[in-house]
Design a protein that fits this description.
With about 280 residues, the chain is α/β, with parallel strands linked by helices. The chain contains 13 helices and eleven strands. The strands form three sheets. A six-stranded parallel β-sheet has the order 6-7-8-9-10-11. A hairpin with a 4-residue loop joins strand 3 and strand 4. The longest helix has 14 residues, at about 65-80. Zinc ion binds near residues 5, 180 and 235.
Length: about 280
């Protein structure tokens, strides 16, 4: 099994106090999101390979340096060789974003990119992003986009819509991209966009705890015949591995004896057993 979506960061160092406050509010209780190596290694035990990244979005107060991510990945891989795959992050609204990305890839060995248009406040179609996409396409670096909503008040929802990536996939047909969280709650938009483009995927991270929405997402994916484009992710530390796997395997519980259609075994086990990194072109 692979897990395409986990975070590493230190809350005190990498998140603005207002951001922490908003996260606590949305959750209804305080929780330190700092990811510790020991707890992380325990959580990822069920997986053969796991993608790890931070996040950069100056607008909403997230800034995890790529050096920190690379160091964390090295610590994990010392104890679980080859398991962690680190992705860089960049905020194209900030000076030096491209240079930081080149450093992250060429000096630190990070193997993909995490972008959060809603966290940084940029339209992913904007011309300022062209050089980033061209670099990633040329280097076979997949980009995982946060798509869909979030809880930060300053985060503009308009730039989180999945359909914005349609244009990018048309302009960069070889670029591998993943839409995180199935673009929630805009999952129909997400599904029709991944249907069009062979190298565009979606992850199912942090969705199982809204069981009605999650069920409908997977049923709709079956109806559009795109379940082969869905990748497993947990969004650790927001959700753990075990509960995420269990949540997926239990997706039909909500239908009880209603006679509603079922998410098939093939859909569920297909998501869990997919070679996500192979599809994204990430070598060992
Ligand atoms: Zn995430």
């Amino acid at each position: 099994m692979q897990n395409i979506h986990t975070h590493t960061w230190n809350q005190a160092l990498h998140m603005a106090p207002e951001t922490v406050r908003e996260a606590d509010l949305s959750r209804g209780r305080p929780l330190d999101l700092t990811v510790l190596v020991d707890a992380y290694i325990e959580d990822i035990a069920p997986f053969d390979r796991v993608v790890t990244f931070g996040l950069k979005g100056r607008l909403t107060g997230y800034w995890v340096p790529d050096d920190y991510v690379a160091d964390f990945v090295a610590q994990v891989n010392t104890r679980a060789p080859g398991k962690a795959v680190g992705f860089a992050s960049c905020d194209p609204t900030q000076e030096g974003a491209m240079e930081e990305l080149v450093h992250a890839v060429e000096d630190l060995g990070l193997q993909g990119l995490k972008l959060g248009p809603i966290y940084a406040g940029f339209d992913p179609r904007s011309l300022g992003c062209e050089s980033i996409y061209a670099y990633c396409e040329q280097r076979c670096l997949p980009i995982l986009f946060h798509t869909g909503t979030t809880y930060n008040r300053a985060a503009p929802l308009g730039v989180s819509r999945p359909w914005l990536l349609d244009e990018i996939a048309i302009r960069f047909p070889e670029l591998r991209m993943v839409m995180a969280h199935l673009g929630h709650p805009f999952y129909e938009e997400c599904l029709v966009v991944i249907r069009k483009h062979p190298h565009l995927y979606a992850d199912i991270s942090a969705l199982f705890y809204r069981p009605w929405q999650f069920y409908n997402m997977l049923i709709t994916a079956q109806e559009y015949n795109v379940t082969h484009k869905l990748l497993f992710g947990s969004d650790y530390p927001f959700a753990g591995a075990q509960e995420s796997v269990q949540g997926l395997r239990n997706v039909n519980l909500i239908t009880a004896e209603s006679g509603l259609p079922r998410v098939t075994e093939a859909t569920i086990e297909g998501i869990l057993n997919r070679d996500a990194l192979g599809l994204l072109g990430v070598s060992r």
